[in-house]
Input
Amino acid sequence: MNYIKQNHINARDKLLIIDDDNNTRLLIKKIMSDTKITIIETGCGREAFDLFSNFSNEIFLVILDIRLPVYDGWTLIPKFRQVNPRVPVIALSAVSPQELALKCELAALSEYISKPFRIHELRQIINSYYCYPFNKSDQK
Output
């Protein structure tokens, strides 16, 4: 479990990144390093649930890899919803875009991003949730 602390502007300033690929987590942290967002990240599904449970009132967005050890993404989503259904979850996965789109719709996810992703698009998505953390998910 790692944290990147930056200046806070509000209580909901945490981005939870859950991906067992350390390089993906490092890349996301790097592209968001010039923001005021606090990054919480892990590569383990079980630890992800613990982090979400502890910080759900401070998290504005979860970026969730679907294929994880212990608990996979599909297992974590309903667990997250039980703790705090208002926190948007974006799936990040290398599974086929068609399969991912269908499953994300069934799981009522906010959005999904296929790997490999475009850095500027991911940053734009993260920033849109940071600026308006619940507006997007409340409209669904």
